[in-house]
Every structure is written in structure tokens, then in C-alpha cells.
Amino acid sequence: MELKVTTLEGKDAGSVQLSDEIFGLDPRADIIQRCIIWQLAKRQAGTHKTKGRAEIARTGKKMYKQKGTGGARHGSKRVPQFRGGGRAFGPVVRSHAIDLPKKVRALALKHALSAKAKDGGLIVIDQATMESAKTKALIGNFAGLGLTSALIIDGAELNAGFAMAARNIPNIDVLPIQGINVYDILRRQKLVLTKAAVDALEARFK
């Protein structure tokens, strides 16, 4: 698959040959969905917690005698029936993460990239660099490229000026190639790859 390469200013910068094994697959929604569920479950904090009856600081002495009161039978004041008592079957600190094989994760990334390429949401730029971190100038460049919601993937290291200029722009995410993931690809309308990112992806799936 051949795709035109542009600069940030919208000028022509030649073309690049994309691998059909990465960008030319027929996207499968089920594989992509499995990966997104895995990602979202893995990032859940799981820090919700309530106290059970064993954790309540209250006496465990029997409240009153068993018989002869005319009321219900009660023992400890820590039980869930009473105000201030422990909660029965409350949430505990735990991990929400589920397992997903590495091969399925890699395949889902390929299908997400292929989905963007298929629907015309993939753009390749020469490089993502700026000498000075000027957000206003970068917004103008993005307007020329028609980018209002985009994930921009660069090489192993981000250009400091570009990253600082882009971080205040809504709906624009900038990540190094190590951070590319299925969820962020699909939550933005456009996927912008630099030449360095394309080379790194092809080396990764070689």
C-alpha cells in the first residue's frame, strides 16, 4: 500500500510504502473489541473498599440477653443490621485485569491500524518537530491538515517543542511509538504517523 507523505505545513514530501501485513488486513471488530476490553479493565484502579464486620472498631460483646426481651436476638454490634456496623459482601481492593494473549494483542493493533487505513483516517507526515513550543502555530498547521481529533505517533523519542505545543490542544494526543495502543487509535478520528513511527512499526512486526 502506497501513501502520500506530507509535512506539518501541508507540503508534499514524497510517498511511503506501507506493509499490507500491518495496514492492509480486513479489520475484525471482535479482535479489536477484546483488546479494548482488556485495556480498559487493566487500567481500572480497583481501590474501592468498605469495612466488613471484622474491621469495625466496636465491641463484640452480646448486646443483651438472648431471651425475655420481646425483641429480636442480637449479639455483636458490628453486624450489618446496625448503623455503623460492617457492610456485608462489600467491595474489596482487587485487580480488574483479565488475561489476553500477546499474539491477540499484536493482532488487534494490526487490525486497528488497518481499520484506520481502510477508512481514510491514516496520515503519514515527514516528521513531528518544532523549534519553539508555539501552540498557536501548531493549531494553524493542524487546521491546514484538517486535524481536529487525532492521535500522533512519533519515533522512540518525542520532539520536546512539538510535544509541549500539542499538549494544550483538545482532542490531540501525542505518543512515542512505545505507547501506541488500540484504544487511543480508535478514540480519535485520525491517526498521524511519522516516517520514524512507520519504520518502527514495520520493524516491530517483522
From TrEMBL:
GO terms for molecular function: rRNA binding; structural constituent of ribosome. Forms part of the polypeptide exit tunnel. One of the primary rRNA binding proteins, this protein initially binds near the 5'-end of the 23S rRNA. It is important during the early stages of 50S assembly. It makes multiple contacts with different domains of the 23S rRNA in the assembled 50S subunit and ribosome. The gene is rplD. Signal peptide: none annotated. Keywords: Ribonucleoprotein, Ribosomal protein, RNA-binding, rRNA-binding. Residues 62-81 are annotated as: Disordered. GO terms for cellular component: ribonucleoprotein complex; ribosome. It comes from the Bacteria. HAMAP family: Ribosomal_uL4_B. The keyword Transcription does not apply. Belongs to the universal ribosomal protein uL4 family. Coiled coil: none annotated. InterPro entries: Ribosomal_uL4, Ribosomal_uL4-like, Ribosomal_uL4_dom_sf. SUPFAM superfamilies: Ribosomal protein L4. One of its GO terms (biological process) is translation. NCBIfam families: rplD_bact (TIGR03953). Part of the 50S ribosomal subunit. This is Large ribosomal subunit protein uL4.
